[in-house]
Amino acid sequence: MQLSTKHLLGIKELSPEDITTILATAQQFKEVLQRPVKKVPSLRDVTIVNLFYENSTRTRISFELAEKRLGADTINFSASGSSVSKGETLLDTVNNILSMKVDMVVMRHSASGAPHFLSKHLEGIPIVNAGDGINEHPTQALLDAFSIQEKTGTLKDKKILLIGDIMHSRVALSNIYLLKKMGAQIMLSGPPTLIPKHITEAFDIRVEYNLTKALQWCDVANVLRIQLERQNQVLFSSLREYNLAYGVTQHKLKHINKEIIIMHPGPINRGVEIDSDVADSGQSIILQQVENGVAVRMAVLYLLAEKKSNN
């Protein structure tokens, strides 16, 4: 099994076969992670730099753990406290790092398209997009898909509801690309100001502004974080009003006549987009998503390294 692409810049560039390959490989690595010895030497002598220009906790730790479980050498770089604060450009930073003979770059950046820019300038070095601006977050969509598939057996024809801040969410866009490619049904719910018309029209996606009706329709509800740091204007009246209308609460779940799967990419704004008693309930697979993130990222790193060695 081999990927058709030498980078993971976004789900947009992947084929359904690529996605199937990554998910199948992740399943194998998840089995490895259940063993007493959780390491495999698949990427021994491979050096990976984690290039994070934006704050991250879960994604960064997940990539670091995946790299270490595969036996890779890891270099961690953050923009704060580096020469970036002195005005060094992205390309200068990366060229300096590559002169140290790095084999792969995992990158998070606040500018949409930054990993794509990098891939055009770094010959033969696989780039993994760990989130770029409001564009894509491909490994999050892959681990979400893996988690749904693990719980339900398939993605095809499953009814997946994305709730909340669609406009600013790179997780939403990557999920939409992936779910469309894999034959799932998608619905969006949230304030009209946070659901861009160009996305619903481009992908032909249904929108339901009544959250209770949307929850009644779906098999899986993926609750997205309200990204106040990306909003440069007021897009809803208050966090309390948002919670009343679009927060996933036990009160709303009691009004639907079935049990659905609850997901969240994190970090959670408890009491805003989701209440604690829902996030911590038996319906929630939020912690399983975090666990599955390591296996999925191991799969991505392993497959890209294999692709590089075979070229």
General description of the model:
By secondary structure, the chain is of the alpha/beta class. The protein folds into two domains: 11-137 and 290-310, 3-Layer(aba) Sandwich (Rossmann fold); 139-285, Rossmann fold (3-Layer(aba) Sandwich). The protein has helices at 16-33, 58-69, 90-98, 114-121, 138-152, 170-181, 197-203, 211-217, 239-246, 250-254, 276-279, 286-310, and strands spanning 47-52, 73-78, 104-109, 127-132, 159-163, 185-189, 206-207, 220-223, 261-263. The strands form two sheets. It has a five-stranded parallel sheet, with helices on both faces. Helix 5 (138-152) crosses helix 6.
What portion of residues belong to β-strands? 5-15%
CATH architecture descriptor of the largest domain: 3-Layer(aba) Sandwich
SSE ordering:
HEHEHEHEHEHEHEHEHHEHH
Mean pLDDT: 91
How large is the count of helical segments?
12
The CATH first-level class of the largest domain comes to: Alpha Beta
> What is the strand arrangement across the widest sheet?
7-6-5-8-9
How can the largest sheet be summarized? 5 strands, parallel
Radius of gyration: 19 Å
Q: Write the CATH homologous superfamily of the largest domain.
A: Aspartate/ornithine carbamoyltransferase
Shape: globular
Number of strands: 9
**CATH topology heading of the largest domain:** Rossmann fold
Q: Percent of residues in helical segments?
A: 40-55%
Structural class: alpha/beta
Low-confidence stretches: 229-234
Distance between the ends: 14 Å
- Domain unit count: 2
Quick overview of this protein structure:
The protein has 311 residues and is of the alpha/beta class. It has 12 helices and 9 strands.
